[in-house]
Amino acid sequence: MAVRRVVPNIQSETMQENRDFYGLLGFEEVMNHGWIMTLASPSAPAAQVSVMADDKTAPVIPDMSVEVEDVDAVYTLVRDSGAEIVHPLQDEEWGVRRFFVRDPNGRVVNVLSHR
């Protein structure tokens, strides 16, 4: 099972201030849907941080996102383990297939693959 990237998600209503602050650390905006903005390192594009005001289709804001090679296979493993599925597996209009699961620490993890 391949993990492609891990991205911390910061809950915040102050998108511009976060863009400016993380810009000081070398990050640049690579995606902005209004409710979520992702900043990445130009020299290491998989080094990212996302800032979220809310989540367009889910009931909670995830603490982190993990992009995997095969989200359907990971979903089956996680579901069969008995872990709490917080948001069901579904295709999103912005081109990802994802689900949310609660980790043993109570953190919500967004597990996704790009279509």
From TrEMBL:
InterPro entries: Glyas_Bleomycin-R_OHBP_Dase, Glyas_Fos-R_dOase_dom, VOC_core. Residues 2-114 form the VOC domain. It comes from the Bacteria. Pfam families: Glyoxalase (PF00903). This is Glyoxalase. PROSITE patterns: VOC. Gene3D superfamilies: 2,3-Dihydroxybiphenyl 1,2-Dioxygenase, domain 1.
